[in-house]
Amino acid sequence: MEKTFAAAVAALLITGAAVLGLFAFSEKPEREAEIAEKTVSVSEPEPEKTVLGVFEGKLALFIGESPYPNIVYDFFVRNLPPEDQSRLFEGISVSSESELESLLEDFMS
Q: Which of 26, 48, 69, 70 falls between 20 and 30 A from 8, CA-CA?
């Protein structure tokens, strides 16, 4: 009887290990796909928004979402024509350094 009981326990343990092994192997491709999906979703951060605008009456460059500028130019916006002042108070998006240089040259000359 003890041999039969031991054989039954051994058979149950072997069956349980086999089932767990199959379960582990069947989960692995799904888990790898999940990991791959997370890896693929990681991307380059978008460049921060750069805007030429006005801060305390002066021409200023804002980078990102901060209400405070990164650069304040020693140039009062009140010296510009009303159309330019209006554009600057709304904020002019800048997409490159050459575009920024061109805008600054236009406004400050």
A: 26
